[in-house]
Write a structure and sequence with these properties.
Helices cover about 70% and strands about 0% of the residues. The chain has a single domain, classed as Leucine-rich Repeat Variant (Alpha Horseshoe), CATH 1.25.10. The chain is elongated, with a radius of gyration of 16 Å. It contains 9 helices and no strands.
Length: about 140
C-alpha cells in the first residue's frame, strides 16, 4: 500500500487511498488526514471519503489526538471537518479553541458549533466574538 501511495500515477495513488478507507484502522488516520491537507483534486476527495469510511472509536480518538497536537492549520481544518462528518461530539472544545484562532476556517468553526454546540457555550462564544477584531466574525 505504501508503494502505491507514492506512485507517480495519480490514479494508482487515488485507488490506494480509497483502499485504505475500506481496510484501514486508527493506524491509517495520520496518513489519510495528511493527504486531506496536502493533496489536490481526486486524491484529496478520496482521502476525505476514506477518513470518513474508517470505523471505530479508536479512529475518532486518533483524530482528536491529532487535533490537539498538530501545529499545522490546514491539517487542523481537515481534522475539524472530519469531526463534523464523523459526528464526533467530543470535538466541541476544539471548535472553541479554533474560534479564537484567526487563521482558522471560521465557516468550518461555525459548522462545528451548529453540530455540537449547546446553550452552555453561549458565554464563551460571546467572549470570543467580543475579543475578535474581525467585524465579519462578530
Amino acid at each position: 500500500m505504501n508503494l502505491a501511495s507514492k506512485s507517480p500515477a495519480p490514479e494508482v495513488r487515488t485507488e490506494a487511498i480509497v483502499s485504505l478507507g475500506k481496510i484501514g484502522d486508527s493506524s491509517t488516520v495520520e496518513f489519510l488526514s495528511g493527504k486531506t491537507a496536502t493533496a489536490r483534486g481526486n486524491e484529496k476527495a478520496a482521502a476525505r471519503e476514506s477518513l470518513l469510511a474508517l470505523r471505530g472509536k479508536a479512529v475518532d480518538k486518533k483524530i482528536l489526538e491529532m487535533l490537539s497536537s498538530s501545529p499545522d492549520q490546514s491539517l487542523r481544518n481537515e481534522l475539524l471537518l472530519a469531526t463534523c462528518e464523523r459526528n464526533i461530539r467530543e470535538s466541541q472544545e476544539y471548535f472553541l479553541k479554533e474560534a479564537a484562532n484567526p487563521p482558522a476556517d471560521m465557516a468550518l468553526v461555525s459548522r462545528g458549533w451548529r453540530a455540537f454546540g449547546d446553550i452552555s457555550l453561549a458565554e464563551e462564544l460571546l467572549n470570543i466574538a467580543y475579543k475578535n477584531e474581525d467585524e465579519a466574525f462578530r
